[in-house]
Amino acid sequence: MKHLFVTLLLIASLVAAGCSAPAGTAVPGAVSQAPESEFILNESIHSGDDFYAYVNDAWIAEHPIPPDKQYYAVFTGMRDGVDDDLHALLLNASAAPTQDGDRNTTLIGQFYRSGMDAGTIDQEGLGGLSDLLSAIDAIDSRVGLANATIVLLEEGFGPVYHYWAEVNPENSSEMVPALYQGGLGLPDRDYYFRNDTESLEVQEAYREHIARVLVLAGEPVEEAAADTSTVYAMERALAAAHLSAEENRDPQKTTNIYTLAELEEEFPAIGWGTLATISGSGPVSRMHIYQPGYVEGLNGLLETAPLEDWKIYLRYRLIDQASPYLNASFEEEHFAFYETTLYGVPEMKSRWQRVVNTESELLGDLVGREYVAEYVDPRTREMVSGIFLAIRETFDERITGLAWMSEPTKAAAHEKLAAMGEKIAYPDRWTDYSGLNLSDSYVGNVRAAKAHSLIHGPEGLEQIGGPVDRSVWFIPPQMVNAFYDPTRNEMVFPAGILQPPIFDPDRDPALNYATLGWVIGHEMTHGFDDQGRQYDRDGNLKDWWTEEDAANFNNRTALLVAEYNAFEALPGLYVNGNLTLGENIADLGGLTLAYHAWKKTENPSDDPDADRRFFIGAATLWRANDREDSLRNLVLTDPHSPEKFRVNGVLFNIPEFYEAFPEIGSGDALYRAAGERPSIW
Ligand SMILES: [Zn+2]
Predict the structure, then answer these.
(1) How far is the CA of 42 from the centre of ligand 1 (A)?
(2) Is 122-347 in the same CATH topology as 2-9+48-85+362-427+475-676?
(3) Taken in order 348, 350, 353, 354, is the CA torsion positive or negative?
(4) I need a labelling partner for 163 at 20 to 30 A (CA). Which of 66, 196, 399, 496 fits?
(5) Are the C-beta atoms of residues 657 and 651 closer than 8 Å to each other?
(6) d(Cα 133, Cα 657) in Å, to the nearest integer?
(7) Which CATH number fits the domain 122-347, given the four candidates 3.40.50.11540, 1.10.1380.10, 2.60.120.1440, 3.60.70.12?
């Protein structure tokens, strides 16, 4: 769960966005030194006015958004490729004989078959949830209510919060359970409270969605209308206790370690005793509560809201969360609101793609292990390690050279960098699925996989109370993404992202550094962004900065906040410079590190055309076509800036960029005077 909330390279909510469609997004290879001939530049735009458009317009025109996607980016094409590979694997596994085949193959084949069997799914109706619906119906006390929320959690449908095992941010040698706010059907708390026309329309569409789901579940129309008000009011009350996306980026605010006794004393209605003794969980003594205000709000509602209201709410939550795995009516209704209304996507992906994405997410390592064996070049790790080491060395040298930082803070920064771990391509040890049993029921298999993962997965509760397992991977190798974890002080680069056009062993190193180098530098810089810098070398939330150095850092990042606040993503909708600060620091630091690391390799470093190629190559990393609805949601909720600003916001802060493009000058739209360019890492 944690990885859904912090420091990913790309926006996290993309499970729904993989797919078919054109795959050809590769930057044309060519080790040829022909300067820019392999790029189709839009010469009608002056590079200094919009470098992103100058480099990417031709590609953007050639890559319209397929009807089943939220947007189309370089990473979308990579995901399509991975989906095709996984599809082939799963088809194979599902065709294999189940008797003498290997157990892992049997499981992934079984899951896939159940997902593709629309006939059985149709017949089953809500039957695959009947035990849970009965458990909700049977609630007749406050204790019974708390217990029902935990039964749902154990089956993968945590209705009111997220719960998983993680490193204790105040003592990074121990594993504790973590609890994170939840309970909402809209993407973020603010969706319930905004009053502009667009937001009011989304609120109304959401209420209509709730009513339609309830009717599909068998309620008469009038009853569904009344229940809709109950569900919406409950969510709104929970939302009122949520922290905002921006507040959730503050580790001081979200690091709150409680003993179990303190929790029972302060918030007695949650059912801590039941939660702490979930079957398979390690022994709980302390818990990381991300948002105590939320737990307080939830506690109040569990104590005072009518039990009948809670039953209506829990029933709806369960069915809505399970809808993607139920029959076509539920699935289509879910799609209509969550993809079409919120993100503007007109068409559902084909069935195989939906099943492949679900299976890859829920049985990550099981699928990943086969994927690695079949599709990952065994040389990848070593080749990527070379780039990684070059970038870390460059970072180390730049820390030494920082004019704004004192020696004691530099010494601690060097230590933190040296201690930072890296995981490349795929794990050495895989999640054990020997306890997982599947059936012919798709929703049953989804439940089984989620329940297994809650205990035995990478963030499984069985780890609580034990030592920190350094071999754990939080995201499976087939994922096209990357991330940094501050409490483990480590980066993860799965095989999925170590492919063309991000990385190609046979290509000009300038381009590998510009794209993969940027990705690696980005994650490394996260350890030193406004959040990451608050953790020490061992991953403890502990200040290692002198006051003056911290003030210098903040003065520099303030320039970045102001810069991004001025970017207009859609008419009247501006980027939130505070929400996106960590990502923007990582983007700026990342490309700076990649550039200087590349300049130290044995390349034609004096050739001015090589530098142009580097920056043009970098600008291709973020090219994308976005739907307006999708972009609006991104700006309102996501800590990443829209793609265009990930290019234009960064390049114009790098002095060497101006040297490579002498035609860019002070009269240009994006030109920034030397004094306005934040230089941090
Ligand atoms: Zn990031």
Answers:
(1) 29
(2) no
(3) positive
(4) 496
(5) yes
(6) 60
(7) 1.10.1380.10
How remote is the CA of residue 601 from the centroid of ligand 1, in Å? 25
> Which residues neighbour ligand 1 (ion) by CB within 5 Å?
7, 583, 586
- How does pLDDT run across 477-492, given as a tens digit for each residue? 999 999 999 999 999 9
Domain ranges of the chain: 2-9+48-85+362-427+475-676, 122-347
- Does 26 have pLDDT greater than 50? no
How far is ligand 1, taken at its centre, from the CA of residue 625, in Å? 20
| CA 170 to ligand 1 centroid distance, Å | 23
CA of 285 to the centre of ligand 1 (A): 32
Summarised one tens digit per residue, pLDDT across range 138-157 is: 999 999 999 999 999 999 99
Q: Which residues pair with 171 in a beta bridge?
A: 168
* Interval between CA 672 and ligand 1 midpoint (Å): 24
| CA separation for the pair 670, 659 (Å, rounded) | 15
Indicate the pTM of the whole model.
Answer: 0.92
Q: What top-level class would CATH report for the domain 2-9+48-85+362-427+475-676?
A: alpha beta
Number of C-beta neighbours around residue 290 at 10 A: 21
Rounded to a whole number of angstroms, the distance between the first and last alpha carbons of the chain is 30
Pair 587, 650: CB distance under 8 Å: yes
